[in-house]
Amino acid sequence: MLTLCGWWLALLLSPVVKARDQIAFKAPHRPNVQTFSLSHGIHLGGHAYPGLHLERQFSGKDRIDVRSSDEAPYDVSNLVLRSTPQLVYKPLIKGGTPAYDRARRALAQARRQGKEHEIEVMGWDIVTVQGPDTSDWETLNSLGKMSSNAYTQPKDTSGWIDPGMHWNLSNSFGWEQDGLRGHVFATPDNATVVVALKGTSAGLVGGGGNTGRNDKLNDNLLFSCCCARVDWSWATVCDCFAGAYKCNQDCVEQALTDKSVYFPLATDLYNNVTKIYPNSQIWLTGHSLGGSLASLLSITFGTPCVTFEAPGDLMAAKRLHLPLPPALPSSPDPSNPSGVATTHVFHTADPIPEGVCTGSLASCALAGFALESKCHTGQQVVYDTVGELGWSVDIRTHSIGQVIDKLLRPDWDIQTEEVHLDSERSFWRSFWPGWGRRGNGSEGDHKQSQGVPKPVTEHDCVDCFKWSFGNGPDFTPKRKPTPAA
After folding, report:
1. Which residues of 214-252 are buried (b: 16+ CB within 10 A; e: fewer)?
2. All structural domains of the chain with their residue ranges
3. Residue 195 — pLDDT band, cuts 50, 70, 90?
4. pLDDT tens-place string over residues 121-157
5. Residue 52 clears pLDDT 70, i.e. is over it
6. Helix (H) / strand (E) containing 247
7. How distant, in Å, are the alpha carbons of 109, 203, 313, 352, 449 from that of 210?
8. 429, burial (CB in 10 Å: exposed 0-12, middle 13-18, buried 19+)
9. Which of 223, 278, 269 is nearest to 55 (CA)?
């Protein structure tokens, strides 16, 4: 059983694209300060276009075209990031590479036999790599702009190509609304590349874009306690509810594996990047859903990652049976996988990463989202916008633009202006109990900025504390689970 998880991971680690021209690695030198620009785009089809794989190289004109989008007004042609040594745990891969479905069935059988511990015990290669310096505000600002840029694409779609020549894009309509997209930023010598994954494209919850329907399905599969069962009136995304805050554990794990295409797509996208940039150091970033997917990739591949306003990823990682490394020696909670090479950046006025956008009358629920997870892997950089700036808890502060403009700056905690929110305030305030409530902070009281908050690790965090999960007779789903399409 020990080799089974290794088989599965080895398959994820193997590139899925055909051999083609690779981007040259021009120099081995890795300076502490590096400059990045938008280099590549990768789009993988999802539910409607399975198997679709498109790539695009960005020229100077394309970068201007992307920057002119309403959703991404930031210049991404010359972004500065600083690096620092970072300790990462990389899972040791053993065994062969059987088909994914075969490995998945064996994992499910082992779970039913109570042998999870035999699968999850693995060896680790502990290495020191260069990672983004999360104590530097300019580095976080640049990564935030990359995450914002992933929501957009040039208005001219003719630049997308299919390396495998399997699709005729001139006769294909709607592929832009389906699947997962990532933007790749590279240094001039291609020594380091940053992959920014697109987050949720949906109104108040997301950052804009055209894949909102599929994003919502995957959000609800990844981050809800039990198939987005908020109350009796909800149409759930899977049939694992066993009544009265009870959920069938095997069922909800199987549903996540079968119905959520985004994590397999994310692993394919990562493998494509490693094929294009075979000698480059890779970092990951993303906002919201894109951040959580980036973190799951960080767990799988041992890659440095920085997320922004991402929902808790620990529950999804456990349900996917990803290899969670041990806690850091400095962690106050030995059970928390703080050894994951991810830093989650978020603020206290955003209810989504805080895990409080829950309940049938919460603004997330009114938008059709069940974002109930709150526990994160790795470390967290938490901006106390409620205490320091007096912000109200408000879903509209989830926007990556608010984070970039108001927080990822050297003087974030000595601002005097009110945070700007749109004109929908009067309508949504009646549904979100936190709106209109201000924290105890006093804006402008600080004479000197405290800079980027120090990273912390979560301890004693529990997801879905009201729920019970199991597989016995008491956890029989009320409805027979629907087979995956």
Report:
1. bbbbbbbbbbbbbbbbbeeebebbbbbbbeeebbbbbbb
2. 32-91+127-475
3. very high
4. 457 888 999 999 999 999 999 999 999 988 887 666 6
5. yes
6. strand 246-248
7. 38, 11, 24, 21, 38
8. middle
9. 269
How far apart CA 285 and CA 182 sit, in angstroms, is 10
Residue with tokens 């789903």: 477
Distance CA(71)–CA(50), nearest Å, equals: 27
Instruction: Write down the pLDDT at residue 122.
Output: 55
Q: Where are the beta strands (DSSP E) in 58-111?
A: 79-91
Residue numbers annotated as active site: 288
Three-state secondary structure of 327-388: CCCCCCCCCCCCCCCEEEEEECCCCCCCCCCCCCCCHHHHCCCCCCCCCCCCEEEEECHHHH
**For residue 320, which amino acid is it?**
L
Token pair, residue 318, equals 């456990």
Tens digit of each residue's pLDDT (9 = 90 or more) over 85-120: 998 988 775 443 333 344 444 445 554 554 444 444
Count Cα neighbours of 456 within 13 Å in the Cβ-side half-sphere: 10
Dump pLDDT digits (tens) for 14-27: 444 444 455 654 54
Tell me which residue has tokens 């997917």. 293
d(CA 456, CA 151): 29
Burial of 315 (0-12, 13-18, 19+ CB in 10 A): buried
Q: What is the pLDDT of residues 270-329, one digit of tens each?
A: 998 999 999 999 999 999 999 999 999 999 889 999 999 999 999 999 999 888 888 777
Q: How high is the pLDDT of residue 265? A: 87
Residues 380-400: pLDDT tens digits? 999 999 999 999 998 889 999
Average pLDDT rounded to a whole number, residues 226-255: 87
Residue 40, helix vs strand vs coil: strand
Task: Tell me the CA end-to-end span of the chain in Å, nearest whole number.
Answer: 29
Query: Strand pairing of 342-347 and 281-287?
Result: unpaired
DSSP strand pairing (192-197 vs 180-186):
antiparallel
CA gap 392, 421 in Å, rounded:
11
What type of residue sits at position 180?
A: L
User: What is the token pair recorded at 98?
Assistant: 């059987």
- E strands of 153-245, at which residues? 180-186, 192-197
Half-sphere exposure of 318 (CA within 13 A, CB side): 19
pLDDT band per the 50, 70, 90 thresholds, residue 201: low
| Exposure on the CB side of residue 304, measured as CA atoms within 13 A | 20
